[in-house]
Please model this.
Amino acid sequence: MEYGNLRERAMKWILGEIAFSPDPARSLRTWRERFGIGQAELAKALGVSPSVVSDYESGRRKSPGLSTVRRMIEAMFAIDEQKGGVMLKSLTHLLIGRFPSSIVLEIKEYSKPVEGRTIVEAVKGEVFANEDMLTQKLFGHTVIDSLQAILSLSAEEFRYLYGLSTERVLAFTQVTTGRSPMVAVRVIGITPGMIVLHGQQLREPDALAVKLAQLLRIPLVVSRLPAVDDLIGAFRSVG
Model:
């Protein structure tokens, strides 16, 4: 798909997310934060004062019409493009195809940012690396059946799947040591906001997995929930 078409689809999708949100003001703020753009930076791109953006996001000002929201989204993508198009690349998994449900068990974008420690509590997790980073904001999660992924995906598909976003949780099920997911993340060169490992026989991650998580500055968590359905339910409860 051409870059322009992909960008247009992404803008329409975000516009719909904001327009149909039960709280459009909060949704608008969440998307700005996801882009990593400050209020002043967005206001400058729009040619308005930062207080205008702040008022829209706080609900103090009447919600902008669709044309104004679209202008704001266009400005976000323009700023993102200047920074290398990081956000557009991270949204491709929502816009181009789908992985089989046997591999991607759950994928969701949160209605508002969630702190890492909230995820840890929900999944009854034990943190094995970078506990000091649990205050960072996460914007979604992807739950992957690691065994099915290994058996079914090519190297390029692995790269595409793991490169979903740098600000989301990647959770891997059917894990025995945690080494394979961490090696894959290291080789592909991405840094998700958190990695959660789940497996009935998993007590603690392999020493190499912990070392890689420490080097990459990724919180590494082992969920103590008994079943995959419990894990997915826990993730759904936070977003």
